[in-house]
Amino acid sequence: MDLAKQLELYIPYNQQEEKDKQVILKALNLKDIFFRTNEMCHITSSAWIVNSDFTKVLMAYHRIYDSWAWLGGHNDGNTDCLQVAIQEAKEESGLKNIVPLSDSIFSIEVLTVDGHEKKGSYVSSHLHLNITYLLQADENEEVHIKEDENKGVKWFLMEEVEKVSSEPWFIKRIYNKLNQKVKQTVTK
């Protein structure tokens, strides 16, 4: 199913998702929306990775953001956001066994990205139109850093996420929302 159809079927969790859903749906008509060559905004895919008993979340210490954060990345032309989320999670964590808990979108976000240096070149500020999936992995499987992107990969108790991330907006608007949604998923 294409992303537009998935988004149309997606029921927003809160007002942030309602607004962001409309922005992303409109942006799908833009040229190169799945490529970084669209320097204003592009589709990205993220993973909220939980352990088997839904008490921990896997995070990476991202070099660009200088913070513990979720895993994910650019689609770079791939329109299958779930596949991208899994691929990025594996690349950034070293995990080999990551499974989606559902093929459905778990969360959506329009994220601002401040201008930064990447591989010696300046990248202007832009938007990530982000699609998040709920994935699961074994917390005992060995993890590895991806030198060019992160300085660490570690499991944290869900309650620790707001203490380890240094990005207040992400804590308030994204990570707390994702943890709440996980808890609701477990109680269903």
TrEMBL record:
Database matches in Gene3D superfamilies: Nucleoside Triphosphate Pyrophosphohydrolase (3.90.79.10)
Annotated CDD domains: NUDIX_Hydrolase
MF annotations from Gene Ontology: hydrolase activity
Keywords annotated in UniProt: Hydrolase
Matches recorded under SUPFAM superfamilies: Nudix
The keyword Ion transport is annotated on this UniProt entry: no
Protein origin, superkingdom: Bacteria
Residues of the Nudix hydrolase domain: 40-178
InterPro entries reported in the protein's UniProt record: NUDIX_hydrolase-like_dom_sf, NUDIX_hydrolase_dom
Family: Belongs to the Nudix hydrolase family.
UniProt-recorded name of the protein: NUDIX hydrolase
Native species: Floccifex porci
